[in-house]
């Protein structure tokens, strides 16, 4: 018998074994090439343009009907082949219409010119529409009498309509988007895939022989569609056209296409740059607008306010879902796609193995090449789809977690600023730090596991259904083993959890001891207590912490044993039941899909306990956060804020018949029946004995006290200088500027007025000196003046100062009075309320208010109160002659051994006067500067001449990370903490060698040997199964099942045992031993330093 030769589209020929075949089977095989091309001249069915005179089937006039598979060729029927094209057309019409509505409603057009890129795109699309219209004409001519009822004609018409919708989207997106619309890109991708399948079918039908004009027309349209797709996707729009829309620190994700988002290709420029250059924080892009703390904080604040208003018991869960649930719900769709696709692979693997067997085993009819190619392409496509889905899921989960933590951290911070005095008593600073660091982190971590709550059961159901198709009810044996292993893993997890709790206690004890050693290092050195404290530290670290770590290592080894042995036990039990309970041989197309499914089943069963634990921890965190966010706040209407005063002499602070209390639940008032007013441009002093209520009075103006009755109104912004100076760990300049935009002129005037110039000369780096934690490198007076300079630089409307002169020397106090607080000072145009008992400042004050037992006992000007010889007079008399010293106009540098000997002329230089006068003259041209009253105003209480003018209001600096530094870094700072050197590039082999030597060379060798042996045993088990399945396939039965199962079990248990050995060696003989050496060296370094 002659050999049959099958020719394929790629030019290859395959010689078949001379076996008798039916004619129809030969045609099916010949038409089953990858491209659809064959050399047959007849017998391969009816073409795409052929039609009957009447419709025998609904909407299909072709003789082959709806199929879907053709009875003549290895192909779809002509009617069914258009189902794919029609689906794409429907997608374009429906999704495209929604995209048009979205573009018109939510995207504003920008004045962008239509360049050649735009017109080339639209011309190509116009040619495609014309091409499809020509195809429609061919169809109408070829289907006489039935064209108006044929599905193929409807598909072509729908394609033309969908192309018109896409034409509209591309026209609108040019002025509204900086990237290609996602609907357009997916439309072209799906259309090209559908047209490719149709092109193969047309080749298989040999349309090029029966109707060449139509085939050429179709191929031209197909080529134009490919060109349009790549032109729309890959051809970038010119940046210059859109440069007016781009921010300096914009993240590329803001304008990335949907394909770029799915493949993360928008990261490619950074990856390329990082490949050649070591990346630093300065090289990173800015955050996208939706990921900034401002956006995430506002989103949570809005939903939380809604919860507070609408629910008696507000729920953080609902607030988080409403604020950040949208992307997380989209992540659930990606998770569904991933779960379905990962269980589809084993099914395709079964068909692929069956296809391979048809070509390798004798006596089996060979399957067409297109079937194997389709399966392989399907597996590849599903693998790509699965990778895309899982990474998009993780991306959205991580982004959602990041937004949750950012929003919660912002809410916690803002809430801490609004806590009332009662709330501060129950919510300490340590608690607030834990809310931000621990509880918010637990909710962020939950986003990585929460989807498993539904995904794990979903995966288990799909896996069991797939296993049932392969081995029937034998799969219950493997499931039973997994169920038995669940409580064992639970007991291990409980044991490990107890060890981890104990380990955390040991860590806390060690951390406290280390903090105690570091904080009291000076005393420890002086009293030679280094050895004693090192013994205590070694006891906690070595005898408690490392000893417990050894137990954790042993528990981890046992957990790894159960984890490693479970897949082998499951597969072994399933295969044993399968071979002993039936006659069907255990072949390759059953073994390997089952192994893949069992491996997939292991994850959801193992992750469920972790999900439950994570949910419990998150629930506890939500309870704690709810308690904090619903804690009592300061009275929202305690102070009424109005616009700032414009004219000097206007009232800026008004208190009428007000009483205040530190605790709203107590009846005791700290201030009673207070009536007070302050005016713009005046200095008001609050005086009184210790405990009279001076600080409470200022707190009442800030709104920190509970207002029992009365009214409090302020006009403008407030700057507050507390009695205890607050300094952050930064440079002196950063402490003064405090986030406002740097104004070198006013900055120099501020530090000069606050008597800081000589201090800058004495500090190692001047105003760039890093002051340390809580300003430890500054004296008390310096800290007070830095805090005052910070308030002055803020240029607020109202200044509340709580005895800010008590920490400075007398001559420095005089300088501050003259240059800051007095009528010629920087704040002369501002409202100043000063709580003090300093006599010199009382003399220059405009108004004095005497407090006694929480009530205003006296008020008036200095001369009025002295003439009354009341409480203020007694206070001055008690001060004795101290007021005469600092009240003098100048003080000799040698009069006091103070912290500074600064003497600055209060009048200032003539050049400075000229500068101030020029600034006053130019005020009218600067809209951001608030103008003062005119010279001719009859109602003006004070003249502006001699004043320091109405200061420009400070504006916040737009700090952009390291690029927004206030000064250059040409001269390194002597006080700035040196950056730790970090190696760049790959880890050197010398590091690994040194680590191995420090640990234990013998232990490292054993670990490597057991690692290789465990992997070898696992591979050996799979090869053993393959050998067994091949024997079963040849013999048609399960021979020597006991022997094969026994050896397979030995491979599995051996691999698990080797895993235990390598875990024990890694934990006990490598990691812990190195830790002991490193801790000892670190302790010796600290004790010797």
What can you see in these coordinates?
The chain has about 1100 residues and is α/β, with parallel strands linked by helices. The protein has a six-stranded mixed sheet with strand order 8-9-10-6-11-12, sandwiched between helices. Helix 31 packs across helix 33. The longest helix is centred in the middle third of the chain and has 52 residues, at about 530-580. It starts with a strand and ends with a helix. One of its GO terms (molecular function) is ATP binding. It comes from Podospora pseudoanserina.
Fill in the keyword field for this structure.
transmembrane helix; 33 helices; six-stranded mixed β-sheet; single chain; about 1100 residues; ATP-binding cassette glutathione S-conjugate transporter ycf1; disordered N terminus; alpha/beta; four-stranded mixed β-sheet; ATP-binding; ATP binding
